[in-house]
Design brief:
- The protein is an alpha+beta fold.
- α1 (20-31) crosses α3 and α6 (169-183) packs across α8 (259-280).
- β7 and β8 (204-215) form a beta hairpin.
- It has 3 domains: 2-79, Winged helix-like DNA-binding domain superfamily/Winged helix DNA-binding domain (Arc Repressor Mutant, subunit A); 86-291, 2-Layer Sandwich (BirA Bifunctional Protein, domain 2); 295-340, Roll (SH3 type barrels), CATH 2.30.30.100.
- It has a 7-stranded mixed sheet with strand order 3-4-5-9-8-7-6, with helices on both faces.
- It starts with 19 loop residues before the first helix and ends in a 6-residue tail after the last strand.
- The chain contains 9 helices and 14 strands.
Length: 346
């Protein structure tokens, strides 16, 4: 079912949202990808009159589904539209927690803001909020996140880990690892992690993570993990000041990304890494994190004790902290902004 909030309109303007019967017909057709299904069979299976079945099929086509017809008028699933429908993301999704409860909107201010509202209303762990576009997408450190319609993947997850607030920054690193790992499944994308939570390709930013928490002094109430992926942006989709700093999966791989497939895979990796983090911390995750890192061995600049400090990033320890060497002494950074002083792009 497609969820919509009153203030958010859904663009493929339909009198109603996609209905359960349309989804059921679609799922049935998809379960028989190589064979045509007789309309009579659909009517019997779903107890529909011919006219109701015809209307449901026409509405699916209206949403952008491609349905193929045999000379006899039997129907076969062809292709899905590039729309982040909840039923598309949950179809065949193999996770147990993440994305099982999923809301998708055409337009929101910020999915993180919606996620906070939903978390306060007791939506369960693993709830995902997605949007086709954000009008006030939030970045880290008070920045905004450029979120043009249908180009990116903008999603926020509600997590309820039993951790202390000081452990929460580790979740950003978990997200970055999962994003980079998903991206590396695609040919031509050399995703690296710029500690703690940016994902880059050749120094240009492909994705960012904004982790926010509601917490008491010693207990995390819930976490909102906001993930922004530049998926199918063309160069012209970025404002001029971002063009040399940001890139998209499409730009670097020279092919359009199936956002639904990408989201599913990301949720699978994220769940695997999240569960591992909850049970054993970074122990087994630190190796891939180190190997994906674009900062280790580099000279970096960061704010410390109110001043700007330059040091060399020498390690990411088994707590996820960045170990920096300054004048022969080491310092461990927990979170915050670093910039590479060589070959750095924001
Ligand atoms: C950053 O690199 O500054 C973090 C960017 C995080 C952007 C995502 S998009 C989905 C979610 N909703 C938001 O408003 N922000 C995050």
């Amino acid at each position: 079912m497609l969820h919509s909030l009153v203030e958010f309109s859904y663009t493929p303007t339909m009198s109603e949202d996609i209905t359960q019967i349309q989804i059921d017909i679609l799922d049935h057709l998809r379960k028989h990808p190589r064979s045509y299904v007789a309309k009579k069979k659909l009517c019997e299976k779903f107890e529909l009159t011919t006219s109701k079945a015809d209307r449901a099929i026409a509405e699916l086509e209206n949403w952008g589904y491609q349905l193929l017809r045999s000379p006899q008028g039997d129907i076969r699933y062809g292709a899905s539209p590039d729309v982040l429908f909840p039923h598309e993301i949950t179809f065949g999704l193999t996770t147990k927690i993440l994305g099982i409860n999923l809301y998708s909107f055409d337009r929101v201010g910020s999915t993180n803001v919606i996620a906070h509202k939903y978390a306060e209303k007791d939506e369960p762990e693993g709830t995902v909020i997605m949007a086709e576009r954000q009008t006030a997408g939030k970045g880290r450190l008070g920045r905004s996140w450029h979120s043009p319609a249908k180009r990116g993947i903008y999603m926020s997850l509600i997590l309820r880990p039993q951790i202390t607030p000081s452990q929460a920054p580790g979740l950003s690193l978990i997200a970055a690892l999962s994003i980079a790992k998903t991206m590396r499944e695609y040919p031509g994308i050399k995703a690296t992690i710029k500690w703690p939570n940016d994902v880059l390709h050749d120094g240009r930013k492909l994705a960012g993570v904004l982790t926010e928490l509601a917490a008491e002094i010693d207990r995390v109430k819930y976490v909102v993990m906001g993930i922004g992926i530049n998926a199918n942006h063309d160069e012209s989709d970025f404002p001029p000041d971002l063009r040399d700093k940001a890139a998209s999966l499409k730009i670097v791989s020279h092919s359009t990304i199936d956002r639904i497939k990408f989201t599913k895979l990301l949720l699978v990796f994220l769940e695997e890494h999240y569960q591992e983090f909850l049970s054993r911390g970074f122990k087994r995750l630190i190796k891939p994190i180190r190997s994906y890192s674009s900062v280790l061995g580099k000279s970096i600049n960061f704010r410390h004790d109110g001043g700007s400090v330059t040091g060399k990033a020498i390690d990411i320890d088994d707590k996820g902290l960045l170990v920096v060497e300054i004048d022969g002494k080491t310092l461990s950074l927990g979170s915050g902004e670093i910039s590479l002083t060589e070959n750095y792009q924001a």
